[in-house]
Amino acid sequence: TYLCTPERMQTHGNECFEKEQILNGIFYSAVILEQLLLLPIGKASDRFGPRIVCMFGCFLFAVGIIILATSELSLGLAHHIGYYIIALAGPCIFGPSLQLCRIFPKVSSI
Description:
6 helices, elongated, mainly alpha
């Protein structure tokens, strides 16, 4: 990964492995957060409409990407916040775009 360069491994020893473990922990907790928020985001999509929820998700995704892009490589609090915001944005973007009536048009009246 970009965290592990040969020079860093020689000078810092096992620090690279620890940073990868932190990054893996951030990723797994963001995935769990995303799965926990699927039902509330689906309810919000039913209440406010898929277009509003998808636009909100795109805004959150952009904010998360900007936070990750401006954060340092030290894997501090900014990485946690950025990944969690992107995890929140994922179901907001993907959920409303998937509608069963568009996938199966012959049985869309069910």
